[in-house]
Specification:
The protein contains 5 helices and 8 strands, in the order αβαβαβαβαββββ. The protein has one domain: Vaccinia Virus protein VP39 (Rossmann fold). By secondary structure, it is α/β, with parallel strands linked by helices. Helix content is about 30%, strand content about 25%.
Amino acid sequence: MKILGGKLHGRNFYMPEGIRPTSDLIRRAVFDILGHDLEGLDFLDLFAGSGSVGLEAISRNAKRVVFVEKEGLCAKVIQENLTLLKITGYDTYQSPFFVINSDTFSVIRQMHKRGEKFNIVFIDPPYGLELAKKTLKTLIPCDILHRNCFIVLQHDKKESLPAEEGRFSLITQRRYGNSFLSIYEGKE
């Protein structure tokens, strides 16, 4: 796969076998909606897979990108992709770019306890398990998002998400084949 925009535009990266990657069409749509320059923003990529969306965020000047991936092989591939793309500063948790090989829900709770905050969260869980809705509901009590923020969910067309959840309102929902892209905005 290739980076679609930003300073790493056109660079190739690895894709682990056996995962459903976020398509180029959806990745492009995410950054068309959010903006092409994420300078100064903190980005959280949950259920990161190959890290393709987080890598796009790095390419588009995100200040900090944290990748969370439970599968060890995928987490290793994300680290290999960071090395391949010559992205430095991902070796400690305080680094601007970091890979966490752990369960998404426990990581969200740990981040909440540490008082971490993000501007954008991208969520792309495995389909058919209602994990998009569960993750959205987990973010409400474990508020790890700045006041004005975005939650972007890629989910199965069969999974229905609410128009509002806590302080988050659905601002757009688009269908791409069997996938939906739902974007929530957080208000104060």
